[in-house]
Design brief:
Elements: H1 7-27, H2 29-32, H3 35-42, H4 46-52, H5 56-81, H6 86-101, H7 105-110, H8 114-119, H9 123-141, H10 152-164, H11 169-172, H12 174-192
């Protein structure tokens, strides 16, 4: 018989599973992590784990989405704090991507496990994730003056494409990758942000 958890216990278990998942992604990656490892580290039974997540892949995907939300919220907060032109926007996006490179996500990127993870997920989760990408992007661009006739969906896809370039750091060249990343981000910023933004508002 499944153990009944209080709402507080459920929240604590979810938090613990989130922490354990990040550690496992850092150390082992998606493929090499087992549910047995996760439950042992979290201090719960295997049956209890499946009350929260149908698979380890769904847990990992949930953790990735929560991380994405946190860094986007942080970025949105910075966009509200000060004037944002092309240079500042490019700098903030570059910093965001560099933060990702220092996170547990980088192990998944280096091991090329994104595609593997996606294949293991229900289709509706992927659809919902793309909807989340769109929502978060619109949240960011609500604080920036965008040029007329810019398709935000295309901007979202462009940011995703730049992010996915980190899968190919070795092929691109590790020595030059940071400059390539800066160039790609600034190129996007130049195309989407109103060029005369400096004159549009008084600070």
């Amino acid at each position: 018989m499944a153990t009944a958890f209080s709402d507080n216990e459920k929240e604590l278990i979810r938090k613990k599973l989130n922490e354990v998942a990040q550690v496992c992604l850092w150390k082992y990656g998606v493929r090499k992590t087992t549910v047995d490892q996760i439950v042992q580290m979290a201090g719960i039974s295997k049956g209890s784990f499946y009350n929260f997540y149908a698979s380890k892949e769904i847990l990992f995907f949930t953790v990735l989405e929560e991380y994405q939300k946190s860094i986007i919220d942080e970025l949105a907060g910075k966009l509200q704090e000060e004037y944002i032109g092309i240079d500042k926007f490019a700098e903030l996006i570059y910093e965001l991507y560099q933060n990702v490179r220092q996170s547990f996500i980088m192990n998944i990127i280096q091991n090329q496990e994104f595609e593997y993870l996606i294949r293991k997920l229900p289709k509706e989760l992927i659809i919902n994730h793309h909807s989340l990408d769109d929502t978060l992007t619109k949240k960011i661009f609500s604080h920036i003056k965008i040029k007329d006739n810019i398709n935000i969906d295309v901007v979202t896809a462009s940011l995703r494409a730049i992010f996915m370039s980190m899968i190919y750091i070795e092929e691109i060249g590790e020595k030059d990758f940071d400059e390539v990343l800066r160039l790609l981000i600034r190129g996007l910023a130049l195309q989407i942000i109103e060029e005369d933004y400096n004159n549009d508002r008084n600070y």
